[in-house]
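Human: Note token order:
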Amino acid sequence: MTSRASPVLVSATTERWPVDGSFVISRGAKTHVDVVVCNVSDGTHQGVGEATPIYYEGETAESCVAAIQAFADRHAGFEDQFDRLTLLDQMPRGAARNALDCALWDLECQQNGEPLWRHAFLPEPRPLTSAFTISLGDPVQMEADARAAAGTHSLLKLKFSGDKDHERVAAVHRGAPNARLIVDANESWNHLDIAAEAATLAQWGVELIEQPVSAGLDHLLAGIRSPVPLCADESCHTSADIPALAPYYQAVNVKLDKAGGLTEAIRMADAAEQVGLKLMVGCMLSTSLAIRPAFALAQRAQWVDLDGPLLLAKDREDAMSIAEGKIMG
């Protein structure tokens, strides 16, 4: 079998990785994350990809494995159909498609003997400053967490709930007065005066607000003049969503799990730039294996939030180099 033979699925498995303590957002706390690892081969080379099920959309690691296996079974024995474009056309967005898409990218890079950034026509990698997430908690705890992170991380991301958010950002600012701040409202501001909330946060130097309103209620942002850029997250899944969001937001958060792989994520970045939106590249809880393709895309981003491996109790043996708040690649 030659290196250009049609790929086949070698394996799709689940892995459980413990969180360092717990990771708390408005939807609840997580003490571990289940990821999906996909391995494909052309008989000479092997490609591997990792994805994290989007639990708030009903995905599980087991359902993602089943979806990957079903796609592979449908295309077994068919030349030139087990590829990224067929995948994009025939599998719904989500973690299953992400794991398989990234595995296929990895395989192509090995076949061509070139790094991902060059193969995907992305900028040559440079170290990037990534946000570090301060879990949702009472202001005292968030202040302590921010103080502990401040020595290493210059960009902190706060999780909000729509209640006591002003106290939380003030506390984090006390704990890390020199840190840059971004916040994730997690769809919790539907009934608040968003312009007033943003003005208050601007006083603390907050430079980005993620998803202030529930997905599907983006029209609540119509006419709002926010002093802080608003970033669509849960409202923005694929490139097709972006034109309708452009009147309400100034940025979009691209996550490979939401997009269903690097292939669609690149299309999202292109679509965002075409309508004048800035780019944030984020992640779910994950190991370095999932961060590598996101890091390649993040070279185009204005904000980077790829701290998934730092929130785990341990990472893979071949972990990415992350030091002093920067991802080195």
Residues 95-112 form the longest helix (18 residues). Residues 243 and 275 are 7 Å apart (CA to CA). The chain has a mean pLDDT of 92. The chain is about 35% helix and 25% strand.
